[in-house]
Fold this sequence. Notes:
Low-confidence stretches: none
Order of helices and strands: HHHEEHHHH
Strand order of the largest sheet: 1-2
Mean pLDDT: 82
Helix content: 40-55%
Largest sheet: 2 strands, antiparallel
Number of strands: 2
Shape: elongated
Number of domains: 1
Radius of gyration: 24 Å
Number of helices: 7
Oligomer: single chain
Distance between the termini: 73 Å
Strand content: 5-15%
Amino acid sequence: MAISPKDAAEARQLLRSYRKQNQKARGQRVSHKPARAVRERDHGYLSWLHEDLPCIACLVLGEPLPVELNPIEAAHQKINAPSRGVQKRMGVRPDDAWTVPLCRHHHRIGPLCCDPAQAKFWAIVGLSPEETADFCQALYGAFQEERDGRPVIRDFASLAAGNRADSRDAAA
C-alpha cells in the first residue's frame, strides 16, 4: 500500500505543527546547530588599512595597475597557523585583527588574487602561514600603538622576496 504524495505532504505538515507546539510549550526554540562564534570587529583598524598603506603583493610581485584604478582593500586572512594562535574555521570570516591591506587586483580580481584557501596566494608571495600570521599580528600591533604600518609591510615584503629568491635557488 503506497502513500499518496498528498497524504505525505499532510503528514509532514502535521509533524511540523506538532513540533512547533512543543517548542512553544517549552518556551524556547530548539536548535541543533552549535552557537556561532562572534568575530571581533575593529572598524578603526579597517579604516586605518586604507590610509596610504601599500599592498605587500605589489611590493613583492610588482604593481599591476596604477593606484587610482586599483584601490587598497581590507583582506581578511583565513590563516591556518595553530602555533601562532589562529586556526581557519570553515565558512567563518576571521576577526578584523587578521586583516591586511591588499590592492583590489591581488585581493579579488587579478590572476594571482587570493584563492579561497589563501595558502597558494601567500606561497606565491613568499610567506608561510606562520609568517603571514606574524605579518597580521605586527600590522595590527602597529595600529594599536599608533605607529605607521608602512615599515611593517616593507619588512615583511623583504622577507617574502628573500624567501622567493631562496626557493628559486633551491629549485635551480
